Amino acid sequence: MPTWIPKRKRWRLLGLYLALLALSHIWCRWVPPVGLPQPGQLSTEVLVIDDDGEPTGEKTTLAYQDLSPPGVKDAPVLVLLHGSIYTPNSFDELIRQLAPNFRLIVPDLPGFGASVGSDLPDYSPATQAHELEGLLDHLRLDHVHVAGFGMGGAVALELANRGSDRVQSITLLGSTGTVEFEWLGDPVLNHAIYGAQLSLYNAAHALLPHFGWLDTGPINFASVRALWDSDPLRFRDLLIGYRNPLLIIHAENDFVEQLSSAQENYRVVPQSVLITIPGGHGAVLRDTTKVAAAIRQFVDKADHGLERTKSEVEQDRLTASVKDVAVSGPRSRTYEFLLLLVIAILTMFGEDATCIGAGLLVARGVLGFWTALAACLVGILAGNVIYYVVGWRFGRPALLHPLFSWAVKESDLQRMTTLFQRRGTWIIFLSRFVPASRLPVFMSAGILRFSFWRMFAALVVSNLLWTPLFVWSASWLGQGMIAMVEHYEKAALFIVVITVGIVLAAIHIVQPLCTWRGRRLWRARWRRLTQWEFWPAAWVQWRLVPVLWKLGRQSGGFLVFTCANPDFPSGGFIGAAKSIWLRALIDAGSAVPRWTLLPAAPASSTVTAAHRVETLQKWLAETPTAWPVVLKRDVGGQGRGVKICHSPDEALHYFVDNLCAVVAQEYVPGAEFAVWFAREPGTRTGRILAVAEAQFPTVIGDGQRTLERLILSDDCSLSRGQIFLAKFAARVADIPATGEVIVLSELAQPSDGAYALDATAELSTPELAAAINDLARHLSDFHFGKFQVRCPSREDFRAAKNLRVIGVAGVKAAGSAIRDPRRTAQEARRQTQAQWESCFAIGATLHKGGVKSARWKTILRGWFQARFGS
Q1: 857 membership: H or E segment, kind and range
Q2: Which tens digit of pLDDT belongs to each residue from 52-84?
Q3: Model confidence, pTM
Q4: Among 76, 348, 741, 767, which is most exposed with the fewest C-beta within 10 angstroms?
Q5: 237-264 per-position pLDDT tens digit
Q6: How far is the C-alpha of 286 from the C-alpha of 279, rounded, in Å?
Q7: Quick check: bond before 628 cis, omega within 30?
Q8: What is the Cα–Cα distance from 678 to 675, expressed in whole angstroms?
Q9: Helix (H, G, I), strand (E, B), or coil: what is residue 273?
Q10: What 3-state DSSP class applies to 332?
Q11: In 80-124, which ranges are continuous DSSP H helix?
């Protein structure tokens, strides 16, 4: 989401979107899509036909208008067929002018208008013609004339092809044409476009809260599916096989169905008549006076046998009709220019993918090699110069803009800064050969004020070397690939998926493995995948589900364990506020670092992030406490919303993203430990269950290697390399001085890159047990939990000296284990199981004494507060 939307509002907007999406899907499930019938519309049921042309045994409703001219007997029957984009009033004006002369049958083809219903197995023109034949049988119409607009023309030809003399004539109104003049001029490429349209529609249908509008609107499932189900090669065969009169009315500037397509239809059908009118695709439905007059005259003559059939045409037109098509591809210069413009624009989003697509167009003869190459070169050069200018003009602020923040990472920019100072020209030259590198490269060049002419020269040379080779290779290989797709048409989708998978594997796996940095990052990913301490808690602890079920059944309730700490909300399970625990320790004196609670600042209030920083600074001055300060969400968990801020600016950024109540706490340096504690009800002394010692990874500078290289070279830091590279994005290109120690993690949280070692045997001393028991007595009726403790050294901790409690957890500590890399996952599960057994036993004893367990509603609310902020 855009960075200017506060985090709290982002979650609210996301929640609103998800709620609307859920309601939309419920609505569509319980209110089936049914189009609203027009006044006077009738309906009948026709058999549903599958994609093999066979009846399925089911029926679907087909709505239609049956308009007879008043006072005219035995008027010719004219069937008007709409196109793939349906609007209920598209034929209104034409109907008004034709109604006095003809009996008009105006159906809503299956899946369109008032004929919308459940999904049909096939929407191709052949299937729709078969289902339309059922309507004509129902009306007992043996002789009809048909006029089809757009895709309706294909349905009309399919109806005539059904093997009877029912169709006496056909009128094509801005109709679809032969595949050589449709879109990209190739059946495979056109089918790919239709597949992309269908995929976009399905994605919109699933991800947009449309409440049925996408099922009944002008563009619905049937409109995009009809194109996908159609056979683009079949239209020419239908034209060749048609023998009755044919009228073609086409607009001169039709962009959707080009005039060259209508001219080819006219050539292929020698008995046809071609009439052109000015205007675009919809002109045949708007300029109805001329169109209706032409239809009226043509149908009247055809009805009386006065229009020519194929057997009656002259020899020269018959000879011309059987010649092979002279050209392929779009014949409109405007269309070709727009296609080249699209190629140039797409290079800004994916150079290599666009070059491959341009090569395929060359392979099919849609574009010439030099024309496609010029479009790719112009687009690549213009796009890269734009990135350079944006970097030059706007600099770092541009990185915060949503247009670029998704692609430009701070780590990329910092890494390029150092490299540009030494090898800027070579970096620009080589970026053409490295996928996904040009955007950070050229924006970095602009931000660093790298010489424009050196940049442009390197850009031109690299593209002149690489782009022609890339486009030519794609066109050369494309012939074989498209031939294979045509041969294995049913497996085309799998071929495309496999090809895309191979390309992605080459970009994201093979290419990174060619560099030291890429190999180290892949090694880090492999470690995180194979070492249990990096796995999500659910993966490690799922085997405990039967154990927890059994404990719940034996203890008298699955939430009985929340009774273990009666004086704390839900026993300190999920959603317990940190301030409650800190207030309970108020009598512990210096054992608890100084802290304060900053109330929530709702987005609707006048409390701003800057105001909260001022409040924080006043508290620091009054305490007195110095920077750094630890800021924590009052309700949170697993390190979410915890940050050590070293300055007011860092605190300001923190408060912008955290509007909830925040605990500000004095920073305590030194070693950090976690102590699990349990005390049986009725006893004064408890026991230590486990002790974990936090480990904060560090690297030491050598005066030669960058911080990034130090991190990736260190075996301990490598497994958490992605965390550290993101955290130190602004410094990864720095070269630390010899002996300089860089602490990579300050928080004892896996999310910050820290890890823990099991130190129970070494550090669980009688002195520590006494000190922890003393702390626990400050917490009223506290029986189970975990203390987060800091002290100057390990020795001090063993001797229980200078202990500072920075945090307390209640019964939720039962579900945590020490993620010590020296232990096995089974040992971690045994620790967690022992903790749960102890917690349930304590809770069950107190529950029998009258303590009430938490409610599921409270637990769920606490989870939301901890996850998204209270």
Answers
A1: helix 856-868
A2: 778 888 888 888 999 988 877 788 999 999 888
A3: 0.56
A4: 741
A5: 898 889 999 999 998 887 778 788 888 8
A6: 9
A7: yes
A8: 10
A9: strand
A10: coil
A11: 92-98
